[in-house]
Fold each of these.
Amino acid sequence: MRVLNIGSLNIDYVYSVDHIILPGETEATGSRNTFLGGKGMNQSCALAKAGVEVYHGGMIGQDGTMFLDACKEYGVHDEFIKIVDGPSGHTVIQIDKNAQNSILLYGGANQKLTTEYIDEVLSHFDSDDILLLQNEVNLLPYIVDKAYEKGMQIALNPSPFNEKLDAVDMKKISIFLLNEVEGFQLTGEKETEAIIAKLRALFPHARIMLTLGKDGAVYVDEKQQVFQPIFKVKAVDTTAAGDTFTGYFLAGLADGLPMEEVLRMSAKASSIAVTREGAVPSIPYRAEVLEALQA
Ligand code: RIB
């Protein structure tokens, strides 16, 4: 099984701060680091590092050719990534002393996808393949409709959650990967069980992967509900923790592993990622994850 991931590629400018800056406040930062990121790129790298055949679709500016080098390094197929005029997407990320972040996102090239481009990329894939999407590129409703017509399974991480998702036909989604905040935004429910019940009622045939921060993660489908607690670690940077979980979760599904094993592997991979700085560079390889699980 191949995964086509049409998603963002962002240059992350990461600033360490004492606390996330408040409205009207000025705070000096001692450090600025630059990392490759973007929910799309992070998830492609997590998939590749977990051993999945993954193709990334998306756009970068002339300033983003290091993404192509990173794809080659980590084993992400990059032939569909297009270089366009204008800057790549970028973010300004504050990381506070508790490793929490806040992210300001500039879409740049991520917002330049065209219907012609989508048609061309999708023409290389079929119903045996999974399409993975997040909400940092334009044309999401079109991409979902076209992939659904082709019979592809569509996995959606509705993040960041905003009004652009209103135009997406969610009934066409086979796999939802979301956190409890996005779960609330999608269902209007606050409690975990209520979120799950509402999602099950709205999308009875979908697989639902709900992450709950420090409270773990819960997976639900028509046949089973499986809970996974977190592996406790000292976090330094939580950026891309969810993306790492997503990549490893889909890798476990692709391998047909029992769900308990899929979730353990995903949670362990994510717990390793938060002990490291940056997005893409923080994502562990599968061998390291499996070794850590045995330790
Ligand atoms: O999920 C983390 C990612 O979100 C960061 O790498 C940043 O680029 C934003 O897109």
Amino acid sequence: MSQDTIESILQEKRLFQPPAEFSEKAQIKSLEEYKQLYDRAKADPQAFWGELAEKELHWFQKWDTVLDWQPPFAKWFVNGKINISYNCLDRHLTTWRKNKAALIWEGEPGDSRTLTYSQLHREVCQMANAIKKLGVQKGDRVGIYMPMIPEAAIAMLACARIGAIHSVVFGGFSAEALRDRLNDGQAKLVITADGGFRKDAIVGLKEQVDKALANGAAPSVTDVLVIQRTKQQIHMEAGRDRWWHDLQKEASADCPAEPMDSEDMLFILYTSGSTGKPKGVVHTTGGYNLYSHITTKWIFDLQDTDVYWCTADVGWITGHSYIVYGHLSNGATTLMYEGAPRNSNPGCFWDVIEKYGVNIFYTAPTAIRSFMKMGEHHPKARNLSSLRLLGTVGEPINPEAWMWYHRIIGNSKCPIVDTWWQTETGGIMITPLPGAIATKPGSATLPFPGIVADVVDQDGATVTNESGGYLVIKHPWPGMMRTLYGDPDRFRRTYWEYLRPKNGDYLYFAGDGAHKDKDGYFWVMGRVDDVISVAGHRLGTMEIESALVSHPAVAEAAVVGKPDEIKGEEIVAFVTLDSAYTSSPQLEKELKQHVVSEIGAIARPGEIRFTDALPKTRSGKIMRRLLRSLAAGQEVTGDTSTLEDRTVLDKLRGGA
Ligand code: 7RM
């Protein structure tokens, strides 16, 4: 981001106070209350988290120690026994919430379903018993590859109930990406559906599973459980594949939740890093349950009658923490929508809000920017007066989009929570508490109580002026990732040893750059590593490059992000070809398609530029900084003296 933009952002003068009528009823009612919580948590984190864990959650057995911190490895609520499925379901059944809507689901072709807490509990127990019968035991890994249907949440909760570790793979990923993730986690079972409705098409999920498992390529998988959704013809492999509706008929609805150790693994979720293969982020039971629960309660300001809707997919961390676990643990009503806005149905989100009287709405800046483009007449034609709180997540939100969201969707009365966090953090880290903290368009504002965030330089020292630096977290928190699955060393290196202050402290480095303004507000600027954010989805440049070079025509590839008005960034790939091939529009198409089949449609390059050579340093490192400027159509500035061959740059400029 250019210096100009940083300066203009930091000069943002608009300040939006929480509306008085909102604060009065809010969970956290004032800045003073926030500050008290924050200071208390900072002064005595163990007491702060221990008291919340006791008050907010059910434990089969209390812990001995709140935190055991052997940097960078943390254990929370040591020896405590807990089950998150119990906290999300069973404990509500003895209260008035028994027949409250837990999950409201709106299907893409217009079908819908509502499950009360007792109905959801019943289905989760049935699925838990069914997968037990298939041989799944405590500690086994289960792949979940599903469309946005209630059974996706049911499958997660069923795993959690019996202590199986789920690994949800976004339904938009390709068979290859699915296979890599199943193999990395050595999954025993895959839960999927025949297909799913995506925009105006049907996607063959089971078909992708078949491809992923073909020829023994994912040998750990012995069983596949298939939910019937689209009813298209699919192949069912005898002895391996079973229909859920067959097993459900025989499955008992009695399945006590397994008391899990607080530090037992709850799930693995893969996320892109700057190098090679995706990282299996590990979250454990007790700490994650508490952190997703309390952030949900305070940030989304849950009230008993709220209908809450998050537009993310359960395949991402946002869907895990803020569609399923955080909200059900609180006994809230969470809405799940299978559809997506598109030109043929540009108002579908606003229809859903009107139909269900949604009160709290959580979406991504990229979606907001596309709504702006579609025009305000769509939301204006619907009654959105039920909304009282709005949220955003996934990438920095530009002040213009923030203002549009505030005015057009929020009718200038709803607070906006711009929530900064990551797959790795388990829950929201920097955010307004909507009844307490005044907002500035484009800033995620202040850290959640218990989170010690800072902006530091390369030596890990606090940056004192507003010039910016690396965003770090200085103290462990309950929702933090515990390790990378099967690779504790990479966990240590990537997150905890990137920045090491002289005093030997461990800082968690998130991979983002940020600024802190005079009021202590955080302005997150985006990734400083080789991770691209396309429509809020994290993609590693290396993953895409590996996909490209796996095509016989490609000799070398370098991938960078180019600013895009709607999606935040678009993928531009610089490619050199094997001498037996020549560039052509046909080959460009083929390479794009190749990336789609290797990773999935979200990774499709917007542009492929063929070139004779890539700009490299003498030590052979591709100079992405130059490529980024070129991709954006900007002048290449800064130091180019380390370039091995300067003519390469001239050729690239010439549009070679
Ligand atoms: C929840 C999620 C994480 C990355 C993170 C940032 C970016 C997310 C914001 C944001 C600015 C925000 N998990 N990011 N939220 N940047 N403001 N409010 O997105 O693991 O998929 O991505 O997303 O770069 O590091 S994620």
